[in-house]
Amino acid sequence: MKDIIKAIETASVEIKKIIDLGDTSKSENENSTGDTQLKLDIASDVVIEKIFSEIPSIKAIVSEEQDSIVNLHEDGEYLIAYDPLDGSSLVDVNLSVGSIYGIYKNEFNAQNIIGAVYVVFGPRVEMVVALDNSVKMYRLYENKFNFIQDVKLNEKGKINATGSTQMNWAPFHKKLVNDMFNDGYYLRYSGGMVPDLHQILLKGGGLFSYPATTDKQKGKLRQLFEVFPFALVYEFAGGGAVDGFKRVLEVETTHIHDTTPCFFGSNEEIKRVLEVYKNHG
Ligand code: AFP
Hints:
By secondary structure, this protein is α+β, with helices and mostly antiparallel strands. It is built from six helices and 15 strands. The strands form three sheets. It has an eight-stranded mixed sheet, sandwiched between helices. The chain has a five-stranded mixed sheet with strand order 12-11-13-15-14, sandwiched between helices. 47% of the residues are buried. 1,6-di-O-phosphono-alpha-D-fructofuranose (AFP) binds at residues 35, 86-89, 163-164, 191-193, 196, 220-221.
């Protein structure tokens, strides 16, 4: 596992260098979800795949940017699902973006996730590692990641990060969001999952929601690359992650690019979601 974390650190230093080159242009390719890829998405993906392919403990990898699983080392113990650069639509406006890694054993599904790492590329580069029931944050300085702090959520927070557009929300979801604002929650939403969830974690708590919508009944965010890794981070930090009805780490995966509605937050907010959603199953 140490080798994998080290590999992610090395890849992040390389990705930071590519971001700093300032190329925000689009490529001519689409990924499997139909998004036009940026040259930056492709370059980050290539860096990660190359570095992971040299780690013997990694059996197979799957990237959000690719259609299928890449087998690496037959005797490897770990499987890694990763989103090389989440939040590509924010690159042109110079907001923070991030990489997300889910570390699995045996099979790519929620029951088998054992670790998660994400890296925020903002004014600073920070890496958060969820392993063995703890969440630790590191910061990049002179090409090295240094430990900064353990990350723990409060029981209740102040942030309400609301995904998708109100036009496509169910009326009860809209009421939940509005009730929270009426109770004093602050809207904080950049449209980048990594910085938005990082903010909630570091500011002690709140709620990030990406519900089922009229245009996307199964939500937008991808299980293996985005939702399960962050679910592990939030659970290990003392909060929770649900699909409205149950833990997202109990959601079934039938295809590597499956999505799911999801809510991440501190315990009070997660209880509130479950309470509202239980009447709308
Ligand atoms: P892009 O990769 O297309 O920018 O999508 C980013 C993202 O997957 C995730 O990072 C955000 O939380 C979510 O989409 C935002 O989606 P909405 O704009 O629909 O709220």
